[in-house]
Amino acid sequence: MRRTIVISDIHGCVDELNELLSRMKYDNRRDRLLLIGDYVDRGPKSCETVDRVMQLVGEGAVALRGNHDQRLVDLALRGDDETVHKFFDHGGTSTAASYLGESVNRIEDESAEQIVLRLRNVLNDQYGSHISFLRDLPLYIEDEKHLFVHAGIHPDYVHRWREQPEREFMYVKEPFWGRRTGLSQKVVFGHTRAVELHGRPSVWFSDDKIGIDGGCAYGQQLNGLEITDSGYAVWSVPAGHGK
Ligand SMILES: [Mn+2]
Fold this sequence. Notes:
Largest sheet: 5 strands, mixed
Number of strands: 10
CATH architecture of the domain at 4-69 and 133-138 and 205-238: 4-Layer Sandwich
Distance between the termini: 29 Å
Radius of gyration: 17 Å
Bound molecules: manganese (II) ion
Helix content: 25-40%
CATH topology of the domain at 4-69 and 133-138 and 205-238: Purple Acid Phosphatase, chain A, domain 2
CATH class of the domain at 4-69 and 133-138 and 205-238: Alpha Beta
């Protein structure tokens, strides 16, 4: 039976991603793999994670764009003050260390301006393929039964959700998950950690939504949702496992 495997919010945890794919016996000839955003920031190996995601997409997976992926693109291409500020406020130091090939301790001795200058040079000179890959990722993918998106669908746009602002696909929180969507398809999303939805890192199922962010980069777990014609199954790898 053909499986769809959905994983979100890898956030630099490439070892846990590889361990999860191995436990699930992911086979690109048989399974459909959907990665629904936030590959970078917070966790230790952002650069290696983007490399791995690019490889998986090359082998048939679909990857969506998350707000952290968009921020790294904005940092590389624009580097405006607000982007820089938010980058460091939301786990960007580990991303800088990963792309610069240096330790977080070494990085933290520098001013934000110095780090950003060096990081932007490295991203634009050596990782242009990462930036254009992340920039061009789609914001959603759907099939008959499910709509897959990084953050959700804002209720203001429910009847024309494809036209909602890009930002909502990547950022919306409680206005989305706090009420019924009114959509015919079930929405599978990440971005909001499952602990915020039901007090546990395990996958959150409701009548019309499934929240899968296990908070791996916060020391919790990386979840893999398996969808088949007969229903759902859940796999997970605790943070720190795999290598
Ligand atoms: Mn997110």
